[in-house]
Amino acid sequence: MSTNARNMMRWNRMDQWLLFSAILLLHNFLFLSQTLAETTTSVHHKILSSLLGSKEAAKNSILYSYRHGFSGFAARLTKSQAEEVAKFPGVVSVFPNRIHKLHTTRSWDFIGMHHSSSNTASNESNLGEGTIIGVIDTGIWPESASFNDEAMGQIPSRWKGVCEEGEQFSSKNCNKKIIGARWFLKGVSHDAKKLIHGNESIEYLSARDAIGHGTHTASTAAGYFVGNADYKGLASGIARGGAPLAHLAIYKACWDISVGGCSGADILKAFDKAIHDGVDILTVSLGLNIPLFSYVDQRDTIAIGSFHATAKGITVICSAGNSGPSSLTVSNTAPWIITVAATTIDRAFPTAIVLGNNLTLWGESLDVGKHHSIGFVELTYSERVALDPEDDSAKDCQSGSLNATMAAGKIVLCFSLSEEQDIVSASLAVREAGGVGLIFAQSHEDGLNQCESFPCVKVDYEVGTQIVSYIRRARFPTASLRAPKTVIGKLTSPRVATFSSRGPSTMSPSVLKPDIAAPGVDILAAFTPKGTTKNSGFQFLSGTSMSCPHVAGIASLIKSKHPTWSPAAIRSAMVTTASQNGNDGSFISEEGSTLKEADPFDIGGGHVNPIKAMDPGLIYDITNKDYIQFLCSMGYSSSSIRKLSKTTRSCEKEKYQGLNLNLPSISVPNLKKAAKVIRTVTNVGNITAVYKALVRAPYGIEVRVEPQILSFNSDTTVISFSVRFHSTQKVHHGDYRFGSLTWTDGNHSVRTPIVVRTIKFES
Questions:
Q1: pTM check: above 0.85
Q2: Which of 86, 372, 465, 546 is most buried as measured by Cβ atoms within 10 A of its Cβ?
Q3: Cα–Cα distances in Å, from 573 out to 18, 568, 577, 679, 748?
Q4: Residue 462, class by beta-carbon neighbours within 10 Å (0-12 exposed, 13-18 middle, 19+ buried)?
Q5: Secondary structure (3-state) at 306
């Protein structure tokens, strides 16, 4: 989901800033101070009082005080006031508020978790019991059956959160499943409440979800078992989240109002409260578009908030973005974040189109209203019913482009010509013109949209061209649209979703992004009922927003089984055990301009395998100090790193090699001739184990691992090894090459993806 361009322009013109003072954050400016003791709200008010001239003015200006994991405040200031306060002693950073975008049930069975209830779970899985998943999103619809707490255990004693009341949301809406709910609106607009109540908005001034996105992601991560879940009869079965017995903590920071969706100030306050409350996992299905800010730039509040959450042992999972299939589009690339790509599952909704000559062609649809199945009626091509034959806008059925007299009572075939027009918009145009159905031909794009009970079928250009040919040949072309069906297990999958953002990272190509891939296409999960009792309460959505909570649910399962593991260890377990093969045994593919084998820039370590991730054998761990030294290796100053990390730690004299950050992947983006990379693994499997190295070298690259055998026992649980790379090519094109290093003891296979780009030209 995204805010439209016009609203974003309106937002950008508003004078809004964030301030940090040790991370002191103001609505329109963020201040960072190195005096860590000055973290109280009174200190924040004192700074503003000095700036604005009175305590009353300070009280009216301040939006949030940040005190947990970092110190700062957000306030509403003019540009000149922000410039003035930046000169105050102890204020070392001031920056404007930013708006982030949302990155918008067969899937769990598809990835190997075959539980139909808590009673059928294996002994190896406790379904996330005892863990707390925080969801920073659009809120939650607490009445959904997915959030039933009947089988939930007691709320963990460490929990410090609250259930904030608000519009149509009381403390009774929280239970042992939804153990906390907060909402943050101050960063969006000073007049946000007026905007909500004055423009017939469906929003709620509370944690209640008006959009549905947050309800969907929360139930995907930790929804309880719901039998007979479906969307209008499609995909009927048992809906569930990845960790059905995990608790949920809701942080509503995204809003359906005209001035923007998710402000940086609100997001940062959500992180601040989540750290205080005691969550174990955070799922964040939103982000910024490229160009990205640096990791020490205070404008990227997701990077800031996640850094401090990770430092407190909280695993943060973020969506990779929906700007694929172009390369270099991945967002949320900080090395302490688990970044998730999206893939398809093996479920489809084929819809028959029967032509008047008895030829049956196939498309896909989710619209199964009582009027969907249409008997034979007249079929036409949009060009034939154009209001203006000279105007190409009728080809893809843009609003107002069709002649109502000519289109009335017909099924209309439209061809997509641009990204601006989609099947939903085209269906509105056909309906307005009196048409009774739509066939929409477009290039391949994963994910189906609903046309609100208006019969619409998506087809590819090949099928669309066959239909056009029939229309042109037939004297009285007719067609019948049949209702869609649910088909499972017939499609080769997973496949990387067309929309899923691709690597490499534009900010730090030595950090492989995305980290992992998970289901994100046509995912059925709980949804806001939109005021109708006829809605089943479940909806299909597609996006990396949907793949992100899949990984959050799995992270919760791992945390429940291994409560002492760090966020880096949890990521390592998933990345090193991920799959590279589809359900037919072939390599996972990705569909960009052509169909090809997916590489690490598409899927990171591979497609997540929750069963294997519970027992990875070895893990690659990372400390907060390691992340700080990595930032030093990127050339950031000690002062800017201290602003981010809220520590007095400086860059070490001995230069830290960024390639040596102990990630479960290896990326060498600028290999001139040779390079050496160091990694360290910790044995978390059998006490006594011997692992041997298996190398699949990238083309044209010689790879040598030392030592080639790792022997673990009760005294030796951590071992470092080196990987040396040497280019054997005389001519280098600057292309990335891919390979892998796998450590195996005969029982575990610990796979590290490798990407290398050579840059030197030789004669």
A1: yes
A2: 546
A3: 37, 9, 6, 15, 11
A4: exposed
A5: helix
pLDDT for residue 11: 30
| Catalytic-residue membership of 213 | yes
Report pLDDT digits (tens) over 516-546: 999 999 999 999 987 544 445 899 999 999 9
Q: How much is the average pLDDT of 92-119?
A: 62
Round to whole Å and give the CA distance between 714 and 683: 10
Q: Which strand (E) or helix (H) includes residue 459?
A: strand 456-459
- Catalytic site residue from 61, 393, 545, 547: 545
Helix (H, G, I), strand (E, B) or coil at 348: strand
- Mean pLDDT over the full length of the chain: 86
> What are the pLDDT digits (tens) for 567-589?
999 999 999 999 999 878 889 99
Mention every residue, 6+ apart, whose C-beta is less than 8 A from residue 272: 64, 66, 67, 68, 69, 70, 305
Spot the catalytic one: 137, 300, 599, 745. 137
Alpha helices in 362-422 (DSSP H): 404-407
**In what helix (H) or strand (E) does residue 425 lie, and over which residues does it extend?**
helix 423-432
Q: What are the C-alpha distances in Å from 91 to residues 24, 98, 481?
A: 8, 20, 65
Residue 247 one-letter amino acid: H
pLDDT at 12 > cutoff 50:
no
Catalytic, 522? Answer: no
Comparing C-alpha atoms, which of 414, 206, 446, 468 is closest to residue 324? 446
Per the residue annotation, which of 45, 68, 213, 372 is the catalytic one?
213
Q: How many CA atoms lie within 13 A of 754 on its CB side?
A: 26
Distance CA 261, CA 556 (A): 27
pLDDT tens track for 202-222:
889 999 999 999 999 999 999
pLDDT of 106 reads 56
List % helix, strand, coil for the chain (3-state, nearest 5): 25, 30, 50
